[in-house]
Amino acid sequence: MSTREAEPGAAPLPSVLTVANIVYALHTLAIVIGIAGSATIVGSFVGSVPSIIAVILNYVKRGDARGTWAESHYRWQIRTFWFALLWFAIAWLLIVTIIGMVIGIPILVVLTVWLVYRIVRGWLRLRDRRPMYV
């Protein structure tokens, strides 16, 4: 964790932006692996090595972003991962009950669209050097 205390709205260090871009890229890779592989997109997002590395990077480097507009991207990325994991678990619990398949499968479909939206929206706002509003 960084000992640097940024002023509110301060410009982030270049390394903070680099890590945020890497995290978006790793999450995108996880989605592509889900599309190309045998796993679901959501399953790949929450359980693949690129996505797990991404969330670890978020936690390790988020202190460097504290007090800058980039902090909101780290929060956005972390929340995206944990909410995806939560809804993935709920969907799979419903699916294994067989009766809940009619609810669990649509949850996975909606969750997939939501994940793609969150990654695309976040990465575009990062490119434009704009904070996320969460």
Descriptive key words:
single chain, mainly alpha, 134 residues
What does this structure look like?
75% of the residues lie in helices and 0% in strands. With 134 residues, it is mainly α. The protein has one domain (14-127). Helix 2 (41-47) crosses helix 3 (49-65) and helix 2 packs across helix 4 (71-96). It has helices at 14-36, 41-47, 49-65, 71-96, 101-127.
CA distance, first residue to last residue: 23 Å
**In total, how many domains does the architecture comprise?**
1
Helix percentage range: over 70%
Bin the strand percentage. Answer: under 5%
Order of helices and strands: HHHHH
Largest sheet: none
Number of helical stretches of at least 4 residues: 5
Rounded mean pLDDT is 89
Radius of gyration: 16 Å
Gross geometry: elongated
- Uncertain residue ranges: 1-7
- Supply the helix-strand structural class: mainly alpha
| Strands, total number | 0
How are the elements arranged and paired?
Elements: H1 14-36, H2 41-47, H3 49-65, H4 71-96, H5 101-127
Helix pairs in contact: 1-2, 1-3, 1-5, 2-3, 2-4, 3-4, 4-5
